[in-house]
Write a structure and sequence with these properties.
The chain has 17 helices and no strands. With 280 residues, it is mainly alpha-helical. Keywords: Repeat, Signal, TPR repeat.
């Protein structure tokens, strides 16, 4: 019965519009934890492995920076308990170490301990009111907690500080997007793209805003670029499928939705899209 209705253009358009709305809503909830921890590592300027960092600490047991660097290495590897211990030690050795507070706040956020995360970001900002990373981190806690105005203010502050971190523009773009301010969103996503280079997330974000404006060709180009950059992201495949579905190409849509479901069986826009487009 559903397949029969979807063969009618008006009904199919309504279903696709609902999928676009769902995709836009989920885009506003992205966390992008991996890119966050990668940014921490780049900011600190270390690619050494944990064993090498431990050797540094053994030679310099009172150096807070050594613990801070090993802490984010632990965080990158998902070893959050060890990361917290190292950041605790770094802060104990240097109570004014605002970077360590922000780094510990990031780990707390990954663990879902948002109250502690905000407290650490607040302390980091108290110690250095120009530290853009702390505003971005706190803004992300606010954003994923539904405190969108506070999140917007923090991303705005980081941008006013001339941040070179693309997350500030990407996250502010997501907030513009859920407000329906797609021109502003596209501008922010484009800035994030120019800063980040190889990240698929802002391409997906910009593509959805293009699509919301009715610019299907640019949306399709962005979704395809996102897949080319990283073909393991379910959202990118579901977004590509959305274009195929809008164009009435159910076979290609179903194939892309199926790939998205394979990557993330819980990604609802892909699950719903596949149920509409697959053939028996």
């Amino acid at each position: 019965m559903n397949d029969v209705r979807l063969n009618r253009p008006a009904a199919r358009g309504a279903a696709v519009a609902l999928l676009l709305a769902a995709a836009l809503g989920l885009a506003g909830c992205q966390t992008a934890a991996i890119s966050d921890i990668a940014t921490v590592e780049e900011a600190q300027g270390s690619t050494e492995n944990i064993s090498s960092l431990t050797a540094v600490i053994e030679r310099n047991p009172n150096d807070p920076e050594a613990y801070n660097v090993r802490g984010f290495a632990y965080g990158r590897g998902g070893r959050y308990t060890e990361a917290l211990k190292d950041f605790d030690t770094a802060i104990k050795l240097n109570p004014g170490f605002y970077q360590a507070y922000a780094n510990r706040g990031l780990i707390y956020r990954f663990l879902g301990r948002n109250t502690e995360a905000i407290a650490d970001y607040n302390r980091s900002i108290q110690l250095n009111s120009s530290y853009d990373t702390a505003y971005i981190g706190r803004g992300e806690v606010y954003r994923t907690s539904g405190r969108t105005q506070e999140a917007f203010n923090d991303f705005e502050k980081a941008i006013q500080l001339d941040t070179t971190d693309p997350r500030a523009y990407h996250r502010r773009g997501l907030l513009y997007q859920i407000r329906g301010q797609h021109d502003f969103a596209i501008e922010d996503f484009s800035t994030a793209i120019s800063m980040s280079g190889g990240s698929p997330e802002p391409y997906n974000g910009r593509g959805l805003s293009y699509l919301a404006r009715g610019d299907e060709d640019n949306a399709f180009a962005d979704f395809n670029t996102a897949i080319g950059l990283n073909d393991k992201v379910a959202e990118s495949w579901a977004n590509q499928a959305l274009i195929y579905e809008r164009r009435g190409d159910k076979a290609r849509a179903a194939k892309s939705y199926a790939r998205a479901v394979q990557l993330d069986p819980n990604y609802k826009p892909a699950v719903d899209g596949l149920s509409r487009t697959k053939t028996s």
